[in-house]
Inverse folding.
């Protein structure tokens, strides 16, 4: 019984991130300000080969469709 | 005597300039201390929350009675940050990391934070597999820890079983302690005597492994952040106190210099007057 998202190439952390993001999007507007801080990753990542750093790039996040306007 | 007077005047000007600049510095360090104080309280609250999650994984490992496999690959993760002016936080981490790498020269290393990266790339550049930065400005969110953990897990070049997370433990508002957190992979937890009693689905275990890794990393990041804010507060407090001491010393010196100039002028005037 393999999870569908695992077959699609995601790991558990990416999957739960997307689920958390979806949940945050449906929070009522009064509480949105409080939880806005929990999103928005700005961590940069550089791969090293042979003692030298590669180019620095933002950490890969799986982009999801922005919330549809009602 | 006139030459000496001019020289004294010049020294007075110097002392005045120094006094002005040090007063400015002490104002800056005082405000930095205030900011660090408020950040410490907030960081501590976040730390207590993160500890609960981290402790749960710790309890699981303890209850299962996990043993580290003899031939396990261990990854060293140094959890530091990008910001300075926080006392011995980063150098302590770098020192402990170097000590570990001296004992395990083949161990792969992942560095979180520029400060530790700068120190470790001088000593062990070949061990570094990847580095992360833009860490430490705000309280780490689980989203961030999750992304870092996910990137490390997805990296094909970093093969590891266990991980050692080198971080700064928040002991109190004035003390921190560099410690190593152990991460045991699910493959070892499953082999433990208490776990073996139960049936599990393979897939769920992989999920758990990834989650436990993110959990440990998150705890290390949040506690490290709290320790850093507290150390910054202490460092800024000491800096302000030292600046205050220098200001007192210089003010005394300035006043003595000023009085000496006045006294010399008076002597000149009186000698001149008595010569008439």
């Amino acid at each position: 019984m393999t999870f569908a998202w695992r077959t699609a190439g995601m790991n558990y952390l990416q999957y739960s991130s997307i689920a958390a993001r979806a949940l945050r999007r449906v929070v009522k507007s009064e509480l949105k300000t409080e939880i806005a801080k929990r999103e928005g990753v700005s961590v940069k990542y550089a791969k090293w080969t042979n003692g030298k750093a590669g180019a620095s790039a933002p950490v890969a996040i799986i982009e999801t469709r922005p919330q549809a306007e009602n | 005597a006139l030459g000496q007077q001019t020289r004294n005047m010049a020294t007075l000007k110097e002392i005045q300039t120094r006094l002005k600049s040090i007063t400015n510095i002490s104002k800056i360090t005082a405000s930095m201390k205030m900011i660090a104080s408020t950040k410490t309280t907030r960081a501590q609250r976040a730390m207590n929350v993160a500890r609960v999650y981290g402790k749960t994984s710790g309890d699981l490992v303890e209850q299962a009675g996990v043993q580290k496999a003899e031939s396990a690959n261990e990854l060293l993760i140094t959890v530091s940050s990008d910001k300075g002016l926080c006392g011995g936080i980063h150098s302590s981490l770098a020192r402990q990391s170097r000590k570990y790498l001296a004992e395990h020269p083949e161990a792969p290393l992942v560095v979180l934070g520029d400060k530790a990266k700068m120190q470790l790339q001088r000593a062990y550049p070949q061990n570094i597999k990847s580095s992360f930065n833009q860490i430490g400005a705000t309280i780490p969110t689980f989203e961030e820890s999750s992304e870092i953990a996910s990137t490390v897990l997805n990296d094909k070049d970093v093969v590891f079983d266990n991980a050692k997370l080198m971080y700064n433990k928040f002991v109190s508002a004035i003390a921190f302690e560099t410690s190593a957190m152990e991460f045991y992979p699910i493959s070892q937890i499953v082999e433990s005597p208490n776990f073996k009693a139960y049936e599990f689905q393979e897939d769920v275990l992989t999920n758990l492994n990834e989650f436990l890794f993110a959990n440990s990393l998150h705890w290390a990041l949040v506690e490290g952040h709290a320790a850093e804010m507290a150390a910054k507060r202490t460092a800024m407090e000491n800096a302000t106190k030292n600046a205050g001491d220098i200001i007192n010393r210089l003010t005394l010196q300035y006043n003595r210099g000023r009085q000496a100039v006045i006294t010399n002028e008076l002597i000149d005037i009186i000698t001149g007057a008595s010569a008439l």
